[in-house]
Design a protein that fits this description.
It is a single chain. The protein is mainly alpha-helical. The protein is built from 14 helices and five strands. The strands form two sheets. A three-stranded antiparallel β-sheet has the order 1-2-3. A two-stranded antiparallel ribbon has the order 4-5. Helix 7 crosses helix 11.
């Protein structure tokens, strides 16, 4: 096959132009950001023709990106998975050798590392919520994802909410520890609190309550906010919803794992957790906490809202790199 010369900037613009019609704006922004590092790397090395990309050169980029960005394994995997999709698109326009995308290496993440590092990225969360707002508005899946992301609450906490705990006038949710009726809070009485919710979240909740919420009570005579025709939503249902809606192919992205949806075991409703990109409820919380911190929300406010101590945030939730933290401190100190 004869390759057609193409410079990195032109290849990038062609790729973005193609994506503009098929993915959400947040997804497009994420791809721009991640591939921007490839353009920087090519410029530093005077790579003016992507025909010259090889498996070795892609591995050199991977190591450069890991070290320059102080990336966690999970962040590195996200970066390289996006690169793999980009390289595959280059193959389709005769810009690189065929099957080069198969040489894009990505780190393996163990279950232990998953529990510590995996989080729902803010760009991915926005792309997912954009899809749900358009195609599944005010459905139970949409409400569940909206609450998990925007409130930073644990799965057990959103499940514990009753209809009366939502105050649309005050735009607030009240968390109550009620272990005798199957809705304990992790931190028991210390976990009880009232949290504010945004106008956008309230609009979704209002439409859910008015239009779609099944009028049922649970086994204890309480009216759950998140209900099904059988009563209060179950933990397994919430977990399955999270796995289902965080598969990239389900909210407008190409599969970063080079799978065909027609024969992918994770594509249906039965085994969504088999998708390497899908996540359980807890990464929603970890990603949301990190997103709020990156947005300069004070740690004390995040700590109080999420009902978790600063030390625990630092150890288990905050996925900002040391460089990100430094730059944020610089921004505050420069104002003094």
């Amino acid at each position: 096959m004869k390759l057609e010369p193409i410079d990195p900037d032109t290849a990038f613009e062609l790729y973005i132009a193609e994506k503009e019609t098929s993915v959400a704006d947040a997804t497009l922004a994420a791809h721009r950001s991640r591939l921007g590092f490839l353009l920087e790397w090519c410029e530093e090395r005077d790579i003016e023709n992507l025909n010259n990309l090889t498996g070795r050169r892609l591995q050199e980029f991977r190591l450069w990106r890991r070290n320059a960005g102080d990336l966690t394994k999970v962040s590195e995997k996200t970066q390289m998975d996006t690169l793999r999709v980009f390289v595959k698109s280059l193959e389709s326009i005769d810009a690189v050798e065929q099957d080069l995308h198969k040489k894009v290496r990505s780190p393996d993440v163990t279950p232990e590392e998953n529990s510590r590092d995996v989080m729902l990225d803010a760009d991915e969360a926005e792309a997912m919520l954009t899809y749900l707002r358009r195609y599944e508005y005010a459905s139970l899946r949409h409400v569940t994802a909206t609450l998990l992301w925007h409130t930073m609450l644990r799965m057990g906490s959103i499940r514990a909410l009753d209809l009366e705990d939502y105050d649309p006038e005050e735009q607030s949710l009240t968390l109550r520890h009620q272990p005798d009726t199957d809705t304990p809070l992790k931190n028991k009485r210390q976990g009880e609190r009232i949290i504010a919710v945004s106008n956008d979240v309230c609009l979704v909740l209002d439409d859910w309550v008015r239009e779609k919420r099944p009028e049922v009570t649970d086994d204890y005579g309480r009216q759950p906010l998140l209900s099904t025709t059988h009563g209060r939503v179950g933990r397994t249902t919430i977990r399955n919803y999270c796995y289902q809606i965080t598969r990239p192919c389900k909210y407008g992205q190409e599969c970063p794992h080079d799978r065909n949806e027609s024969d992918c075991e994770a594509a249906g409703l039965d085994s969504p957790s088999e998708c390497p990109s899908s996540v359980s409820p807890h990464p929603f919380r970890r990603g949301a906490i990190t997103h709020f911190l990156q947005s300069d929300v004070p740690e004390t406010a995040v700590s109080d809202r999420a009902n978790v101590t600063k030390d625990v945030i630092d150890q288990h939730y905050d996925q900002r790199s040391d460089k990100e933290k430094m730059e944020q401190r610089r921004g505050h100190l420069d104002k003094v």
